[in-house]
Design goal:
By secondary structure, the chain is α/β, with parallel strands linked by helices. It has ten helices and 13 strands. Belongs to the PstS family.
């Protein structure tokens, strides 16, 4: 990656007694102009001829699974699905690491849950639509997926059942909406039994921030409940719900047939968009779905190939 330019401005003032004041004023003006020029230089220093730094998520991530499916990066080969993400991609193991990685690399591209998006990075438009909750809800922004929770059918404790009822209630769905996700507008008011006990909820790092808020809200109604939250990934969330390690598993994708065949029962608790993100210094504001696919399969290597 090319080094940024540094511009030095030097001025020499004649040591003439009668011009000291004037020289001081000119020095101040030059300093101001120099500062302005430096800002202009910094904002225009991003170079589209540089290589694209492709950043993806780890195997087992529900966000990765949904992303590669939605953009056609995953393709069927007979009965198998093949992930064609370029081998050059840098792999991150959580939403937070994805954000810091893209924020720290001028030429990076990545993807995160829309609800996790912050101002450390820039979300680009996809096919002309901005990544917003309203656009996901209207269908204008099509890069979206469900947030699922899953339990082993027949093994749910009273506390797990009550907590799930809260999540799906009007009060729980209000928490979903408050945190930037798409909620169920037709949810009924909560009428729980407030059972005591302990449950473990675990899985997707994308669902985890929302789940944390839901746990906090539920415990305001039921302070005797103990709910432990473990952040791993969607696949671990499902396998741990199957083997009983988690009472409730979290997945930021649809459940697989193999998971359902093991007795898991899934419930959608929210709909989330996937924001395609770039560094804030990147001058590109919009990409097409085909361009995103081309970048992630390694066909497009430099930013000037997609720059307009």
């Amino acid at each position: 990656m090319k080094l940024k330019k540094v511009i030095a401005v030097a001025g020499v003032c004649a040591m003439v007694t009668g011009m000291i004041a004037g020289c001081g004023n000119n020095s101040s003006d030059t300093s101001s102009d120099s500062s302005s020029d430096s800002k202009t230089e910094a904002s225009s220093d991003w170079d589209a001829s540089n290589d694209i730094s492709v950043v993806s998520r780890e195997d087992g991530s529900g966000t990765r699974g949904a992303f590669i499916e939605l953009f056609g990066i995953e393709e069927k080969n007979g009965d198998e699905k093949v992930d064609n993400t370029t081998d050059e991609a840098q792999i991150t193991n959580s939403t937070s690491v994805m954000l810091t990685t893209v924020a720290g690399d001028d030429y990076a591209i990545g993807y995160v849950s829309l609800g996790a998006l912050d101002d450390s990075v820039k979300a680009v438009k996809i096919d002309g639509a901005e990544a917003t909750a309203d656009n996901v809800k209207s269908g204008d922004y099509k890069v979206s997926r469900p947030f699922n929770i899953a339990t082993k059918e027949g093994s749910e404790s009273e506390l797990a059942k009550d907590f799930i009822s809260f999540i799906l209630s009007k009060e729980g769905q209000a928490v979903v909406a408050e945190n930037g996700y798409i909620s169920d507008d037709n949810a009924e008011p909560f009428s729980g039994s407030n059972p005591s006990g302990k449950i473990v909820v675990g899985g997707s790092s994308s669902v985890s921030p929302l789940m944390e808020k839901l746990i906090e809200a539920y415990k305001e109604n039921n302070p005797d409940a103990e709910i432990e939250l473990q952040t791993t990934d969607s696949t671990t969330g499902m396998t741990s719900a199957i083997d009983g390690t988690y009472d409730i598993g979290m997945a930021s994708r649809e459940l697989k047939d193999t998971e359902l065949s093991e007795g898991l029962k899934a419930q959608v608790i929210a709909t989330d968009g996937i924001a395609v993100i770039v560094n804030k210094n990147n001058t590109i504001d919009e990409l097409s779905s085909d361009q995103v696919k081309s970048i992630y399969t390694g066909e497009t290597l430099t930013w000037d190939e997609v720059a307009k």
